[in-house]
Every structure is written in C-alpha cells, then in structure tokens.
Amino acid sequence: MMRRQFQVAKFTPPVFVPVRRSGIATVWVIAGVPAFLTLLIMLTDLGTIWQARTELETALESAALAAVQQWKIVPADTITPRNTAIAFGSANTVVGQTFVLNDNYSGINTNGNAFCQGDIVFGEIDLAQNFASGNVPNAPNYYGVHVKKTVSIASLWKKFAGVSFGPYKVTAQTTAQLPVAAGGTPQLVLLNSFTCP
Fold first, then answer.
1. The whole model's pTM is what?
2. Is residue 158 part of a domain?
3. Residues linked to residue 149 through DSSP beta bridges, in sequence order
4. Which of 20, 86, 175, 177 could bond to 142 as cystine, CB 3.0-4.6 Å?
C-alpha cells in the first residue's frame, strides 16, 4: 500500500500595493479651511448678538425701573422720569457702544406720550397685567413704564474674503410697574397686552 504524502503549503500574506493618492490632503485643506472660518465667523457673531441683547435688556430694565419710581413721586410730571430713564439707559453700554433713548415726549397726549410705539411709553397697568398708554394710573392699578430700543451692532469680522457681515439689529423691551397706592417697590413685569389709544 502506498502512503499518501501531503504537502503543506506555506502561507504568504498578501502584498498590499499602496495606492498613490498624492494631493488628497491639499484638497481637504482647501475645502476645510473656508468651511471652518465660516463656522468661526458665525459662532463669534452669534455670541456677540447674544451679548448685545443681554446688555441692552439690562440697560432697559434699569431705565424702566428708575423711570417708574421717579414718576410715582410727581405723577403730573413725565419729563423728569423720562430724563431719568435716558440717564440710566445711557449709563450702560451695549458691546462697548453707547446708545440714547428717545424721550418720546409730547405735552399734548395722555401721560405725555408722543407716539404709542416710542422708546419710552408711560401708561397704566391693570391687575391683569394689561398696559394702556392712554390711561392715567389710578388705584388699585399700577404706574407702568414700557421701554423699547433697537440698536445696530457691527460684526467682529467686518470684512472677510470680500464679503461683509452685519451690521445686525438687536431689539429688546421691558416694562416696569409700581402700585399707585402708597408703598410698594418697582418691579419688572410681563404684559398680557399692550394697547394704544
């Protein structure tokens, strides 16, 4: 009988031939750098807008609180509280820029408002938090001062690659109230409605 002989084959790993991909890193850099810079510009401008809105809101809150407190001292006078609001608003900056509130004063209309949509509007706030600029405040309601402002904010990246970014418009508004009755402290409120005559 014959014996079978087996041959054991040697295992040889496959040989990988590197594929030449010259320049692929250059393509990724050329495509990636503008995308990264665009994202960077968007994020820094978004942060600047957020900061501007927060700073503007803080300035308007201080202006409204000071004005409503001043108005209660002499209810017939709305010029002094308006000037107080302007002074408190101007004492603050929005991303390093100053701004000035318009006094919106007219000696003809109720509460001295020239326009219903002005920067500073005086009115009455009822117990349901409804603001009426045409009403003179009476107890048990509240003195109300509504302050609104829009400012223009420049982009940190004024020009990049031939494209201008900004300026951006940032708007904030707030309302403060103080009880007509004796006592009380000024406080910020969210209104249910805002009506003009």
1. 0.81
2. yes
3. 172
4. 177
